[in-house]
Amino acid sequence: MPDLTPPRLKNDCFALPPGVDWTPVDEALRRLRERLHPTVGTEDLPLEEARGRILAEDAIARRSNPPGANAAVDGYGFAHAATGDGDQSLPLVEGRAAAGAPYSGSLPEGSAVRILTGALLPGGVDTVVLEEDVATDGERIAFEGPVKLGANTRRAGEDVDAGSVALENGTRLGPAEIAILAATGVTEVSVYQSLRVGVLSTGDEIVPAGAETDPSRTYDANRPMLLSLLSDWGFEAVDLGHVPDDRKVLRAALDGAEVDAILTSGGASAGDEDHVSALLGETGSRADWRIALKPGRPLALGVWNGAPVFGLPGNPVAALVCTMIFARPALGVLSGQGWREPVGFEVPAGFEKRKKPGRREYLRARIGPSGRAEVFKSEGSGRISGLAWADGLVEIEDGPRHIRPGDLVRYIPYASFR
């Protein structure tokens, strides 16, 4: 099929209704879901080159899996109608049925044939008895009945029928998905082109790690963190570098970004040096979403040359949380994968916390040896070490809450965002 490029996003896709101030997390997610659509084109690829890509249309099985009725075990095949209750004895025919070497001809009624796992069922065979349940002298077999009709057999198409949908549109192709497509004869698939996501750090105070020892400078943790995160999620991560607090330099960096979406960190609020917000405002696309969550809160959204821009907070902890909660499902839609909710689990708390109403909170957490959710010793959003200590987040709902040890809390593993 020809390459198709979906329409780019409009400048007003993130606009908030008049009078909206603080936006609850669920409301922000609903708006994102409603206003986004895939922004990448499609292409046809050989199956062996499609790992990690997202199906742009349903993949249809070209043949059944299994392609023919076959034996599920090593044993002896026969017609069920020739057997009954109690002790059974059947003569063996010469030859056998093996995977890739089927028995020639049909089995005479009232006889049995040696059959191995995966072998096609010969004509006249509809049931197989496990070899461990059989006594034989090489000429006859004996076993105890009754044996259930169709026992130890697989029907043709038991897994997937030819002509049916093997995998649905929006499925990311990993090893397991590649396996089922190969097994059903699919050799070429229509997939979305890889979503290219640029990562840009901003701010005069930001320098590369190890560049200097001036304590007034901050080593850039956001850009390597976000680039690694995007790669883990299967997107094509593009390093857009770092720009100082200079609007002309920032504009040039955004203009030169040949990507489908952009994540920036820093400059997303409304201060004198918040140039990301200012530039998005100049295009008329900026929406300052003051999200009712902790950590995070300010999230500048806009469109630059048709590419959505997620203006993240400069604090690494807040940047990571906002990327996971908001950017991840949005990027899924843009890439053709669709909106994906992270899977959380109700687990007992291994901590105590009092929470005021008004904001949803995400705590860095991990599951301890007792199966309880433990949280990092400090909620300070500058404590980057807590990101590495944790293996997920505890989500605490918007209302007030007094959590005591043993109370159930929602734990979301980092892996749920992949």
Q: In total, how many domains does the architecture comprise?
A: 4
Shape: elongated
Number of strands: 29
CATH domain topology of the largest domain: Molybdenum Cofactor Biosythetic Enzyme, Chain A
Largest sheet: 7 strands, mixed
Q: In terms of structural class, how would the helical and strand content be classed?
A: alpha/beta
CATH superfamily of the largest domain: MoaB/Mog-like domain
Q: How much strand?
A: 25-35%
Number of distinct helices: 7
**If you average the pLDDT, what whole number results?**
91
- Low-pLDDT runs: 269-273
Task: State the CATH class of the largest domain.
Answer: Alpha Beta
How far is it from the N-terminal to the C-terminal residue, by CA?
Answer: 29 Å
Radius of gyration: 30 Å
Describe this structure in words.
- The protein has 418 residues and is an alpha/beta fold.
- 17% of the residues lie in helices and 31% in strands.
- It is built from seven helices and 29 strands.
- It has helices at 25-35, 175-183, 222-232, 247-255, 275-282, 316-334, 385-389; strands at 22-23, 42-46, 59-60, 70-71, 75-78, 86-97, 112-115, 127-130, 135-136, 140-145, 153-154, 165-167, 188-192, 196-202, 206-207, 218-219, 236-243, 261-265, 287-291, 293-294, 298-304, 307-312, 345-348, 353-355, 360-367, 373-375, 392-396, 401-403, 408-413.
- The longest helix has 19 residues, at 316-334.
- The relative contact order is 0.13.
- Residues 269-273 have low confidence and may be disordered.
